[in-house]
Amino acid sequence: MVTKHPICPDRIRKVPKQFSWLDHRLVSEHYIDRCTHKAAALYLFLVTVSDAKGMSYYSDRTLAQRLGMDEPEVIRVRSELVDIGLIAYRKPLYQVLAIDPEPVRTSGGLQSVEQIFKRIAEGRS
């Protein structure tokens, strides 16, 4: 196993007080693989500017200027992120969404005890 030592120990990251972070499951659950580069850029921007509930609001014009896109492209990549399930949008608000765990199968497949109890707690059978 490789022992890791910070290259710049005086610059180790911390969660900033304005609350901004990226979920590792973007990579481990392959969400990032389903994004175009421009959609990933929009997602990064929204994560950076959102509050603790994931909420932010920027106009298409401002996003286009900040990200080097035109407005129709912003609309297209926003739709891509909505379809993937990473954001929700209702003009003028964006919400960066929590990445949900794998959905529980309801078609008779095997389920873990944890999944069964979770469904019971949520009032689903």
UniProtKB/TrEMBL annotation:
> What broad taxonomic lineage does this protein's source fall under?
Bacteria, Pseudomonadati, Thermodesulfobacteriota, Desulfobacteria, Desulfobacterales
Gene3D superfamilies in alphabetical order: Winged helix-like DNA-binding domain superfamily/Winged helix DNA-binding domain
Name by which UniProt lists this protein = Helix-turn-helix domain-containing protein
Q: Which Pfam families match?
A: HTH_36
Top-level taxon of the source organism: Bacteria
